[in-house]
Amino acid sequence: MNELDHFLEAADQPERYGAGIKAGGTPVLGYLCSYAPEEIIHAAGVHPLRLFGTLESTLHADSHLQAYCCSLARGVLETALDGTLEFLDGAVFPHTCDTIQRLSDIWRLNTPFDFFADVVHPVRLDAGFAREYLEDTLQRFKRELEAWSGSKIDDAALARSIETFNTARKRLDDLYRMRSRDPGCISGSRVSSIVKASMILNRDELPGRLSRLLEEIESGRYRTGATDDRKRLLVAGSLCDHPDFYSMVENLGGVVVWDDLCTGSRAFDGFIDPSGDPVKAIARRYFERRPCPSKHLSNTARAEALASMAEEHGVQGIIFFLLKFCDPHAFDYPYLKEYLEAKNIPVTLIEVEDSLPPEGQLTTRLETFIYTL
Amino acid sequence: MTDDKKTRGIQSPPIAMDAKMKEIMTGYYIEAKTAADSGKQVAWITSGGPVEPLIAMDIIPVYPENHGAMIGASKMGGALCEQAEAMGYSGDLCSYARSDIASSVTNGGPIGGLPRPDMLVACNNICGTVMKWYEVLARYFDVPLFIFDTPMCHTDYHEESKRYVKQQVLEYVAFLEQVTGKKLDYDRMDHVGKLSLEGQRYWQAVLDTAASRPSPLTAFDGFYHLALIVTLRGTQVAVDYYRDLLAEMKDRVAKGIGAVPNEHYRLLWDNLPIWYRLKWLSNKFAAHDAALVADTYNTAWCRSLRYIEDGNFLDSMAEGYTRMYLNIGVDQMADTIIEMAEKYSVDGLVMHSNRSCKPYSFGQYDIQRMVRERLGIPCLLIESHMVDERSFSEAQTETRIDAFMELIRNRA
Question: How close A271 comes to chain B (CA, Å)?
Answer without folding.
Answer: 25
